[in-house]
Design goal:
By secondary structure, the chain is mostly helical. It has 2 domains: about 350 residues, no CATH class; about 190 residues, no CATH class. The chain has 24 helices and 2 strands. A two-stranded antiparallel sheet has the order 1-2. A hairpin with a 4-residue loop joins strand 1 and strand 2. The chain is globular and about 85 Å long.
Length: about 625
């Protein structure tokens, strides 16, 4: 019975591959493949759950495939099934099927019809990987793919300014959550000295024995999990990304940001509850975060002028309550709450265009202004203040930009000498010196090794920030990121002895992607000698094949799950010790800004309005 779990992953994967092989002008075949795949998934899921219930609903765990194994580390794909998985999988399949059928007609004659359905079914694959995951590594594969699908569907109308801009905003918040989840995995490796499964986390005695010995490590891991969940589910202070994500098609907004993707953070808390259930401070923190998010999101939803924004903040309000329910131990209530909220928001988003049209028509003929009275009391002033703050969405966008990203962008602008001739020579000298230190590592004292590791890790971070803030040549930004990856490898290698095959695993995908991506940029540069990053160029309009190849190169450079670099990143983190906080912070920041710099580069060159203006540009969202 546990071996059947992999079928729920293979089915959408086969559907995705089949959909990619169909020509883009065959709308009926593309939508037919997608709908058939999801129908089979719903049918199979229903039969499996019935059979599982008839057999006294045992917890199922299946170790599927071992991708890498050594004496101290094992990376394997694991599938898991319990009550939480049963509800999330059935509700997810049912909602996805409804939206797929709706999309068949809603997206008719759209130029990106195939692109939409391919991304849509890839999202469904990622969602199932998360829901059926039996360990953090399997969950993280789905987590990464889900983030990519979000970016691609928000920026679906890639010839427009706002969808692309908002897609970058959303992926920046997602990336912060990704790295926090990575740090939680890193600390779990040091806590349990194994690739811990969720089945083993349910062993109360096993977890309690480790908690008494390593309380601070448990708190750190729990907070990282909370930040990852909060970023994915749009909790404070990340709530503003959810309405920005509504720039994509209404159907993707319904299945992503109204129902399924936005609840993945709540699923993560449910799945990891046995890990932090005995840490009272974390439970209080999650409860307060959920309740405060609900109150603020409800106030914002009441005063917004656009229907999608109202629905987005209404959904956040309910998810905040779900967070509080999970922390308080009301898991059955939280699962029921998830099901109701997901179905309601899907329905609201799908009918929102029709309802909006009806309301405008009704208001045009039947509107009568209310009598307004102005008060001067303290309560009226407080009410007006909350109204104005809520209209501005509590300035959450400004807060993120000013305090989360702007300091790093300003720091990167001050480091432009890194891309000059003197800077390149200096960096090359540093790298060669680091390689020599690596060669004679046995003769270097341990404390000096650690200082050198920090130095090279900080050098990598500075290079990434330079690429992140680059407004000129895209090729400079591209090679800055590649150089940063090399310095990260050197830093970790000096910190702890790392076998050569691990370095090869990490760098293999990066180097191939770096070369192919470089030739893609050269090809685009030959068109009009301009690949500056101070504007969007929109070359995907004329060169869609080059855009697709370059996107694959970007994903490989980021260590996406289809490359060995994804495994290499996990291996790198195992060579950073639990008490080396400076090294882990600089390395983590590097991985955050590597993705932002690379996706920004891709978006600036290939997305956005084409240089030849075909339609007016809206530079601000409502």
């Amino acid at each position: 019975m546990p071996q059947l779990l992999q079928l729920f992953i293979w089915l959408p994967f086969i559907g995705f591959i089949t959909c990619m092989l169909v020509p883009g002008n065959k709308e009926k075949i593309i939508s037919g493949i997608t709908i058939t795949t999801i129908v089979l998934h719903v049918f199979g899921c229903s039969l499996f759950i019935i059979y599982w219930l008839m057999n006294n609903h045992p917890i199922l765990d299946s170790k599927h495939i071992v991708l890498y194994k050594s004496e101290s580390f094992e990376f394997f794909i694991d599938f898991y099934f319990d009550q939480i998985t049963a509800v999330f999988s059935f509700v997810g399949s049912f909602i996805t099927l409804l939206v797929a059928i709706f999309s068949k007609y809603y997206m008719h004659r759209e130029s990106g019809y195939k692109r939409f359905f391919a991304t849509f079914i890839l999202f469904f694959l990622a969602y199932n990987l998360i829901i059926f995951s039996g360990n953090f590594e399997t969950l993280f594969v789905g987590w990464e793919v889900l983030g990519l699908c979000s970016f691609l569907l928000i920026a679906f109308y890639r010839d427009r300014y706002l969808p692309v801009k908002n897609g970058l905003k959303v992926i920046s918040v997602y990336r912060l959550g990704d790295v926090c989840l990575m740090l939680a995995m890193w600390m779990c490796h040091h806590l349990f000295h194994e690739n811990i499964t969720f089945l083993k986390l349910n062993d109360f005695d096993f977890v309690s024995s480790h908690l008494t010995q390593h309380n601070s490590m448990f708190i750190f891991t729990a907070i990282m999990i909370l930040i990852a969940a909060a970023a994915k589910s749009a909790m404070l202070p990340f709530s503003s990304w959810l309405p920005r994500a509504m720039e994509g098609p209404t159907t993707s907004s319904a299945v992503f940001y109204g129902s399924l993707s936005v609840h993945v953070g709540a699923f993560l808390l449910l799945r990891t509850y046995p890990f932090w259930q005995d840490i009272t401070s974390v439970k209080i923190l999650i409860t307060l975060l959920g309740l405060s998010t609900s109150i603020i999101a409800a106030a914002i939803a009441k005063v917004q002028s656009t229907v999608k924004t109202q629905i987005a903040y209404s959904s956040i309000t309910q998810i905040g309550l779900i967070f509080a329910e999970i922390a308080l131990g009301f898991h059955t209530l939280a699962i029921i709450h998830f099901s109701g909220n997901a179905l309601l928001r899907t329905y609201q988003l799908l009918v929102s265009p029709s309802v909006l049209s009806y309301q405008i028509h009704n208001m045009f003929f039947n509107f009568s202004p209310k009598d307004h009275t102005t008060g001067t009391g303290i309560w009226q002033k407080l009410k007006n203040t909350i109204y104005v703050i809520s209209i501005k969405e509590w300035n959450l966008d400004l807060f993120q930009y000013k305090y989360l990203w702007m300091p790093f962008k300003l720091a990167g602008k001050q480091l432009k000498y890194f891309t000059g001739k003197v800077g390149i020579i200096t960096l090359a000298s540093f790298f060669l010196g680091g390689l020599y230190c690596l060669y004679i590592e046995e003769k270097i004292p341990t404390n000096i090794d650690y200082l050198l590791a920090i130095f090279f890790s900080m050098t990598a971070l500075l290079l990434v920030l330079t690429a992140f803030s680059e407004r000129g040549n895209a090729i400079k930004a591209w090679f800055s990121v590649i150089a940063a990856q090399c310095f990260i490898t050197l830093s970790v290698g000096l910190n702890d002895f790392m076998e050569m095959h691990k370095v090869v695993i990490y760098l293999s995908g990066i180097l191939v992607a770096a070369i192919i991506g470089f030739f893609c940029l050269l090809y685009i540069k030959r068109i009009d000698k301009d690949i500056a990053l101070n504007r969007f160029h929109g070359y995907s309009y004329e060169k869609p094949t080059v855009a697709f190849i370059f996107l694959l190169c970007c994903l490989a450079l980021l260590g996406f799950p289809f490359t060995p670099t994804f495994l290499g990143i996990d291996l790198l983190f195992t060579h950073i010790y639990k008490d080396q906080f400076i090294l882990i912070i600089t390395t983590s920041l590097s991985f955050i800004f590597i993705e932002l710099a690379i996706l920004r580069l891709y978006a600036r060159i290939f997305l956005g309005q084409h240089k030849k203006n075909f339609h007016p540009i809206a530079y601000r969202s409502s």
